Amino acid sequence: MAKRSTSLITVAVVVSFATMALTFAWLRxxxxxxxxDVYEKKTIGQRFHEETTLTWRKATAETLSFKINRPAQxxxxxxxxxxxxxxxxxxxxxxxxxxQNRRSKxxxxxxPLTMVQLSQLLFAAQGSTGKSFNTLLRTxxxxxxxxxxxxxxxxxxxxxxxxxxxxxxxxxxxxERLMTGDIRREITAAGLQQEMLGxxxxxxxxxxxxxRSRFKYGERGLRYIYMEAGHISQNIALQATSLGLGSVPMGxxxxxxxxxxxxxxxxxEAAIYLHPVGVL
Length: 280
What we know:
CATH superfamily of the largest domain: NADH Oxidase
Number of domains: 2
Number of strands: 9
Structural class: alpha+beta
Strand content: 15-25%
Strand order of the largest sheet: 1-6-5-4-7-9-8
CATH class of the largest domain: Alpha Beta
Largest sheet: 7 strands, antiparallel
CATH topology of the largest domain: NADH Oxidase
CATH architecture of the largest domain: 3-Layer(aba) Sandwich
């Protein structure tokens, strides 16, 4: 009789634990479904902010992966014709006056830019300012000094320079000619028919190679990339003001159309920001 009672108690305990386990499993399942439902209801912007939020766990994992399979620091077009740029100048109006006078300007004259002005604008955007160990430092700050951005000047009206698509080689402060021809119609269409894209003397397309930042910072690196686009664009705007030129940063464009224009896949490298500059 005692053995039977012990067996019944054992069975009862097992059934109790099994019931508890099933209950916890069901609660976890329903909780997971509720969390998934909440996640699906969030906007893309909310998801982006959530997925790029930094935690101690993420920070530790990213530190461990640093310097493994680091992407190339520079992009070059080895088959492209190169064109030297004038050396940048380090004289101009006071910084305070430039800040005071900076405005977004969307209407430009037909007067061409000079090569000196183009050189100055490119230097302000991403020019080399020195070295730290094996890193080429630039005029704009970058998370981890990783510099994910490339600059493609779309030339419409610059003295001594054929219209077309160019790439800025930051290491040598020179241009790489990718294509010649008038593409005002194409860039204007890609920019939702905003006329300043065709009227400007030059349109700077800022593109990001995402893995340059992501390999160290993970998805958090995407936040840094969008911040850095603002740093670079502000430098262009301030330099344009210093030169007496007009400019405006533009975020409204058809991504696929701009990427196609530059021959980019839109995944490894993609257009992030447009910045037309012209003579007032």
